[in-house]
Design brief:
Number of domains: 1
Structural class: alpha+beta
Order of helices and strands: EHEEEEHEEEHEEH
Strand content: 35-45%
CATH architecture: Alpha-Beta Complex
Strand order of the largest sheet: 1-6-8-2
Length: 152
């Protein structure tokens, strides 16, 4: 099962992970989760919120397409991706990526590859806002290198 969604509303990582874990089949021996939060500081600046713009429908389809390919590549049985859009306050979760597989290596690899994609190539436009104003942010060179290495 692959589930990918973009939400304008906050979500509860604990509730989503519990729901995802309840789907575990007898062949699944490993579950890996990653939760990303909006930082309150970035590059020595205070951040009050992160604004994420996206194209509704297109963004979800792209995330689902990559999740499907990643799941097949790493032989995972289940994948979950929930990504926020809109205004996300500092401290709130932005993204949850979870994978289940027979063994841990496949689940870890799938989660890492999906996160690298979400950081670099997913169709989101991100702007940090703080006391000193708003700043558009781009993926770092390190993010892009890691994504390219995993794509091989």
């Amino acid at each position: 099962m692959i589930r990918a969604s973009v939400s304008l509303e906050p979500f509860s990582p604990d509730a989503e992970v519990a729901r995802f874990s309840s789907l575990r089949g007898d062949a699944s021996g490993a579950a890996v989760t990653f939760i990303g939060y909006c930082r309150g500081r970035s590059k020595n600046r205070a951040v009050t919120q992160l604004e994420l713009e996206h194209y509704p429908g297109f963004t979800e389809a792209e995330i689902n397409r990559l999740a499907t390919a990643t799941g097949q590549k790493h032989d995972v049985s289940d994948l979950l991706v929930i990504h926020r859009a809109g205004a996300v306050a500092a401290g709130e979760p932005i993204v949850l990526v979870a994978a289940m597989s027979a063994h841990r290596a496949a689940a870890f690899a799938a989660v890492e590859e999906l996160m690298d994609y979400l950081k670099t190539d997913a169709p989101f436009w991100k702007r940090e806002t703080g006391p000193d104003g708003a700043h558009w942010i781009e993926p770092t060179a390190e993010d892009r290198i890691r994504r390219e290495e995993r794509a091989k």
